[in-house]
Amino acid sequence: MQENVPELLMEAANLLLVGMSVVFIFLTLLIGAVQLIAYVNSILPDEVVETPSSKPPVRRQTANSDAVGGSTIAAISAAIHQYRQSR
Questions:
Q1: Which of 20, 34, 37, 79 gives 20 to 30 Å between its CA and that of 62?
Q2: Is the pTM of this model over 0.90?
Q3: Gap between the Cα atoms of 31 and 23, Å rounded
Q4: pLDDT tens string 3-59
Q5: For residue 69, what pLDDT band results from cuts at 50, 70 and 90?
Q6: Domain-wise residue ranges, the chain
Q7: Is the confidence at residue 68, as pLDDT, over 70?
Q8: Residue 50: helix, strand or coil by DSSP?
Q9: CA angle, 54 as apex, 51 and 57 as ends, to 5°?
Q10: Per-residue pLDDT at 1 exceeds 70
Q11: Cα–chain center distance at 43
Q12: What is the mean pLDDT of the segment spanning 60-67?
């Protein structure tokens, strides 16, 4: 078994170097591609297409949209009261 240990360590080191090199090359190419896309996008900006709107968007406004209705408060109060009495 001891005769194979140096060979196994050399193979492990070889795989380590090959794997790290492949990852480094891939990431370098990826960064280059992203920078190339950013450069092309800065040269050729998107065309802005404006669509005419016939009427403004409808926006519903209430006096107090965060307020809870009286029936909801009554139901919650009743539920709390019932829960406290059952304990």
A1: 79
A2: no
A3: 12
A4: 799 899 999 999 999 999 999 999 999 999 999 999 998 898 777 777 777 776 666
A5: confident
A6: 1-45
A7: yes
A8: coil
A9: 90
A10: no
A11: 28
A12: 61
Quick one: tokens of 77? 């109060």
CA-based end-to-end distance of the chain? 72
* Cβ neighbours, 10 Å, residue 55: 5
Q: Find tokens 């450069």 and name the residue.
A: 39
- Tokens 């092309």 found at: 40
Which residue has 């050729």 as its token pair? 44
Residue entry with tokens 């196994």: 8
> Which pair of tokens denotes residue 71?
């029936």
